[in-house]
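We both want to read discrete structure tokens more fluently, so let's practise on a single case. Would you write everything just below, so we can both look at the same thing?
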Amino acid sequence: MPLQYWAQPYVVRRMAETKLPDSPQYRPAGRLLGPVVSPPGPHACYAARPETSRGRLYPETESATRSCYSRDRDRIIHSSAFRRLKHKTQVFVQHEGDYYRTRLTHSLEVAQLARSLARTLSADEDLAETVALAHDLGHTPFGHAGEEALDAVTKDIGGFDHNAHALRLVSKLEHRYADFDGLNLTWETLEGLVKHNGPLAGPLPGPIASFDRRWPLELSTWPGLEAQLAALADDIAYVSHDIDDGLRAGLFKVRDLLDWPLVGDHVKGVLERHGELELSRFIGELIRTLMSELLEDVLAETRDNLAAGQFDSAAALRGAGRATATFSANLLKRLKALKAFQMDNMYRHPKVTASMTRAQAVVTDLYEAFVADPGLLPEDWGQAARDAVPGTVARDYIAGMTDRYALAEYSRVFRTEIQL
């Protein structure tokens, strides 16, 4: 797909007035407009600091009571995309049970871990929390299965990437403010959102390439420490809570975990200390000790890396050419083995794959129907589709759906219900 598409204006409902670069009211992106509030507590020299933020694409007067990063956090929490996460699949389709994680509860757990890591390392915990809360905004309904289906069916127009779509949401598709599209987040939050898993190279997804031309995010470097910590918090959260959900779903039993990499030692430890426990108490003890090992390893290894790097600024840390927040080599090896084991014994479990196969059909069928007849889209989306590259609006519309809304749309469009 031509990259030029992503640079085209995309407005579902026209704003009263848009201060774009050719507008007399426009001022170029840069430093924050005061007041600038710094949170209490020590900030190490390598931490992101509100007073040195690179600002927002559209300059605004800052809050008198919140730092720029806590303001970003609040904008994300109040966004439509964030609210929709409560009905989006993590592993199990949302309606299957009240106890399973959704994208929303997962994001909250990641934010808690990221905030704790940042505080312990004297980084900016508001920024770490913000990146953590935003990291899954771009996910489709039905988890990774939904993303795979949407990517496959849109290959001819550039495919689909959830990180790129998250950037598109916060910079274009959220419509909360009269003066601009998106949430107008700080440069540091946007950088962390796009690069929290590391530098980007090669052909870039359209939304990222387009935005980077407007406001470069230094895609070839590692992000700041706060975003790196958020990425590790994501790993810690999902490998741990997916075990919790898998046990509650009956995909495996406690004794089965004895042979799992990394987890097996913790299972043995819980059984030796407490004997047989009711499932909820066993899960609590297992996840507590597993998370503790992972967190302690990250803190120890990252402290060593910070000491070796002797970074005197956040910019110096970004320019190190390597990750600073890391697991140790030994633990990383065990963690990768655990992820592979989870893939075979949980994510590919027949109970999971059966519903996900049907979910992929929902995504595929809806996309093909909306492209064939844009009149099936809601009125404002249909109007946008008539002015856009075929399929691009349908892709955005489906990506924003929750699990239950996708099923409702399937029922409306095809006049039949599908059971996952």
Remarks:
- The chain is about 55% helix and 0% strand.
